[in-house]
Amino acid sequence: MVGDITAVVQALVKNIDGVVRGKHHEIRMAVSCLLTEGHLLLDDVPGTGKTSLAKAVAGSIAGTWKRVQFTPDLLPSDITGVMVYDQSNGSFNFREGPVFANVLIGDEINRGSPKTQSALLEVMEERQVTTDGTSRLVPRPFFVVATQNPKDFQGTFPLPDVQLDRFTMRISLGYTDHNTEVRVLEDYNRHRRDQPIEAVTDAEQLERIIEAVDRIDVATGVHDYIVRIAAATREHPDLRLGISTRGTIALLRASRAWAATAEREFVTPDDVQDVAAAVCSHRVALTPEAELRGADTNSIMATLLDEVPVPRSREG
């Protein structure tokens, strides 16, 4: 089981590494998110490779993928689809929107209005779209890989807490180091930039890998550890919103995927700690007083991970 997962993970990471340079850890994190059939939010300043990473992830899978550029005038039906009148038979037919794909890239998602953002709430959680009273399933596996600019940029609408909670992970790429950026400039070629990315797996194989990841062994002590972390966020005085049950499930699945990328058949507390910031920091929200003091959710999560007792054995 782990051997199959390892082969796919290595192929995906190598393929994406060839597009996004110097971000091996972040790429492995993104691949781990895929192994949970979760959704990934790339949050960073413009020009750091967010869209390149999203396209590399989508292109590495031999399935269907669509891209939507979010703008303030984008409508919900532009994403989910719309009923169209067919004059030839006098009936209305449903025209599928870009959400009917294995991978949906939502570029600059926080430039869309709250009404348009809400069009993704159902499909991100239930893998279906309901229009005109009819529910339609989207292909499986189904991933949303979204990018967003910092909230203080012009023309952005903050993602509501309920939407953030549907993203399994939120990661930032940051600027590349000096040597990597020099190599990027040396290798730059506009013709090579436009070449399609070669797929290294397909939707059917990825579905089997996701099912295998769900069978990674997790000891009772690790389950208890995850719940204790969540409880600590719910009781923290600087947080008005703690980690929900959806969040604890996401942390469990991400820990399994991270363990699988490390070629292990069981989850350790270290796996939980490694993915906790990416899974949890966007799910908690500061109180107004903490915001005025300049508190940071990443720092609070790091402090909580230091304070919550760690199980000392696999058995807990």
Helix content: 40-55%
Largest sheet: 5 strands, parallel
| Count of individual helical segments | 15
Approximately how much beta-strand content do the residues carry?
A: 15-25%
Shape: globular
The third-level CATH topology of the largest domain is: Rossmann fold
The strand order across the widest sheet is 3-6-9-1-10
State the separation between the terminal residues, measured CA to CA. Answer: 25 Å
**N-to-C SSE series?**
HHEHEEHEEEHHEEEHEHHEHHEHHEHH
What is the gyration radius calculated from CA atoms? 20 Å
CATH structural architecture of the largest domain: 3-Layer(aba) Sandwich
What does this structure look like?
The protein has a five-stranded parallel beta sheet. A two-stranded parallel sheet has the order 2-11. It folds into two domains: 21-196, Rossmann fold, CATH 3.40.50.300; 216-308, Orthogonal Bundle (Helicase, Ruva Protein, domain 3). The protein is built from 15 helices and 13 strands. The mean pLDDT is 88. α2 packs across α12 (245-261) and α11 (220-235) packs across α12. It has helices spanning 2-17, 24-34, 50-59, 77-80, 114-117, 121-126, 161-164, 178-187, 190-193, 203-213, 220-235, 245-261, 269-280, 288-292, 297-307, and strands at 40-43, 61-62, 65-69, 81-86, 91-96, 103-107, 128-131, 134-137, 143-148, 169-171, 201-202, 239-241, 285-286. It starts with a helix and ends in a 9-residue tail after the last helix. The radius of gyration is 20 Å and the shape is globular. It is an alpha/beta fold.
